[in-house]
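Subject: Sanity check before I submit

Could someone independently write out the C-alpha cells for this chain? I want to compare against mine line by line before I put it in a report. The sequence has 327 residues.
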Amino acid sequence: MNALRTGDVVEVRSEAEILRTLDAEGKLDGLPFMPEMLSFCGQRYRVRGRAHKACDTIDWQQFRRMESAVHLEELRCDGSAHGGCQAGCLLFWKEAWLRPVAQQEGERTPETGAAGASREALTAATQIGTNEAGQTLFSCQATQLTNASKGLLPWWEPSQYVQDVASGNSTVFRVVRALLVGLFNRFQRANARFFPRFCVIRGCKRYPFIEGTAASGSTPTGSLDLQPGEIVEIKSREEIFATLDGDDKTQGLRFDGEMLKYCGRRARVLRRMENIIDEKTGRMLRIRRDCVILDGVICAGDYHRSCPRAIYPYWREAWLRRVEDRA
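---
Independent answer below. Compare away.
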C-alpha cells in the first residue's frame, strides 16, 4: 500500500482482520490496538495527518521516529478501557489496520502478527499490574510510545521536514518557521548554560517568550467551577502572564507557548480534567485543582517541529473568563 497522506479517505478494517495483524499482547510493531478503537472498525474516515514522528511525553527527549502510522480525523481515546482517563489522546493507526477506499475489494489483510490476538487479550493488555502502593498500572498507546517507535529523531535529520511537507501535514512556511524557532531556542539554551552573564535576549528564555509576573506562591487559586458546554473566553497574554510565576506556572500547571495563539478567543469547555494516566509509570493521576480542556483547542506543533499528535493543552480557570452563551 502506498503511504497514506493527509486528506486520504480510508476504511478501518474489520475487527477480525485487525486482530490477525496483532501479536498475543495485542500489538503490532510494539503499538497496542486498544479496546477503545474497536467501535471504529468498518467505518470510513479521513486521514488527519501522517504520524511519522511523535513528541516524546515519557522521557521528554524531543521526538521519536514512527513508521507506517497515521492519525484519523478527530478519533481520540475515550479512556473507557483505561480507568476513565480523560486525556483524550489522538489515536495512532497502523496502515495495516486501514484500507484506502480506492483499493480493490478482496485484497488480503497483511498478516504480520506472530499469533494473532483476541478481544479478551486487548482488554487484558490495558492493565500491567499494580505498584507498591497497590495502584493499578495501565498500558496504552501513550505509555508504550517508546516501544512502538524506532528510536529518537534528531532535529537535524532533514527527512522529517521533507515528510512534513510531502505528507500534507504541514506547509513549507510552517516547517521553516519551526526549524528557525528550534535553532534560536537551542542558541538560547546553550547561552544560558555556558555564558549566563551574556543572556541579552529576554534572559535566554525560549521563544515564544512567556514572562510570568506573579510572585512565587502567590498565583491565583480562585475557581469558576466551569462545566462541559459552557462558553469561555481565553484571557489576553498580559492577563495570563500576571497569574504565572517565574517558572511560567499557575498552581503548578505550566502555560505552554503553543497556547498563546488562542489568547482572546472563545471556546466551549469540553470537560473538567480529573483523571489522567502518567505516561511514564502507567499510574492514574488525580488532578485536584481546577483544570479543563477546551473543544477544538489543541497543540498545533507550531513551535514543536510540526508534531502531529494534536494534544489537548490543560487550562487553569484563572486563564479563562466565563461568557454568557447567547447563541
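---
OP: Matches mine. For the report I'm noting this point. The first strand starts at residue 9 and ends at 12.
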